[in-house]
Every structure is written in C-alpha cells, then in structure tokens.
Design a protein that fits this description.
Blueprint (H helix, E strand, L loop, with lengths): L1 E7 L2 E6 L3 E6 L17 E7 L2 E7 H4 L11 E7 L2 E7 L1 E7 L5 E2 L13 E7 L2 E6 L5
Parallel strand pairs: 2-11, 5-7
Antiparallel strand pairs: 1-2, 1-8, 3-6, 4-5, 6-7, 9-10, 10-11
Length: 137
C-alpha cells in the first residue's frame, strides 16, 4: 500500500494513494452561502475542475487547527464513494510504500475529535503519522 504524505501547519498526515486522483493548484474558489443549521463550516466552497464541480474542504477547520489559512493554494483531488472532493493542504512531502511498516488500527492515542477521520496510524522516522479516511469527510 502506498500513501501520500502532506503537511498541515507543522503536522504530517497521509492518504492512501488509491484515493488521490491528482494534485493541483486551486485557481478559483466559489464560496457557498449556507442557510441550513447543518452547515459544515469546514467546506471552503466549490471549484470547477475541467467541467466537474468539486467540493473543497478545509482540513484545518475540520481538525480545529489554529491557523485555518493556507500559504499556497494546493489541493488534492480525491475520488471517494460519494464522488469527487478536494482537500486543501500546505505542502506535499512524499509518497511512501508501507509494505515494511507496522500499521496500527487502534485509535486510543488519537485526539477524540480526530477519530472519525483517521483510518490508521503508521510510524515513519520514529514519528506517528495519521492516515486519513477520506470517506469520512
């Protein structure tokens, strides 16, 4: 299994490569006006990517990180069961093959607010990396 590693602020996260369809610069974002009480404040807006309307998610808002803005407009386009979704990130780091690494599916060490969004943890270079579950966004 391969994962793509990326940064949000000073933390490293990962996604299974099978979900990642492309990495691109977010050139235009249309904010959405919500009137529903079920408004998800982490939805940054929508973008038109070659004729497809893509919902763009701000992971920093979803994870309650302090700084919710991004230095660059990089996003990863994901293909999930519900369709396509884009996530904003700060920086792409690497693609890693996890064949020789221990995967930990327990979630006792993860902050409770993050648990629904984490698929598993892997230790890389003596640091735990949270691998996200994009089906939960």
């Amino acid at each position: 299994m391969q994962v793509i590693l990326f940064k949000l602020e000073d933390k490293v996260y990962g996604l299974e490569l099978q979900y990642c369809k492309e990495i691109d610069e977010l050139k235009h974002l249309t904010p959405i006006q919500y009137t529903s009480e079920n408004y998800k404040n982490y939805i940054e807006g929508i973008t038109n990517l070659r004729g497809d309307i893509i919902t763009v998610i701000n992971l920093k808002k979803l994870f309650d990180l302090k700084n919710t803005s991004y230095q660059q407009n990089i996003f990863i386009l994901l293909k999930v069961k519900k369709g396509k979704v884009g996530i904003l990130i700060d920086q792409i780091l690497d693609i890693v093959n996890l064949e020789n690494y221990h995967i930990d599916y327990s979630k006792g060490h993860i902050e409770s607010k993050l648990i629904p969004y984490i698929k598993f943890t892997v230790i890389l270079n003596h640091k735990p990396i949270l691998i996200l579950n994009p089906e939960s966004f």
